[in-house]
Design brief:
- The chain is an alpha/beta fold.
- It contains three helices and three strands; from the N terminus they run H-E-H-E-H-E.
- It has a three-stranded parallel beta sheet with strand order 1-2-3, covered by helices on one side.
- The chain is globular and about 40 Å long.
Length: about 80
């Protein structure tokens, strides 16, 4: 069974085509905010590993996106 894959530029396209409702972010810490916000903007709830992000500005961006979209965000630890 081949799983769909894409590059970063096609992230939203993959979410839309695969009708994703929840995204798990396990990328490099400094990129967490980008994928979290993009997923929430696309209508997905998000689970991310900790740290949620690496600085206050990125944290603010995530929280603003969460408030605006109403999507759920969970931060977990493996």
């Amino acid at each position: 069974l081949a799983l769909p894959a894409c590059g970063p530029a096609d992230f939203e396209k993959l979410l839309r085509e695969q009708r994703v409702d929840r995204v798990i972010v396990t990328s490099v810490d400094r990129t967490h905010h980008d994928y979290i916000c993009r997923a929430m903007e696309a209508g997905c709830d998000v689970v991310t590993e900790k740290p949620m992000t690496v600085d206050a500005d990125k944290c603010r961006q995530i929280l603003d996106t969460q408030r605006r979209t109403g999507r759920r965000l969970a931060v977990t630890f493996n």
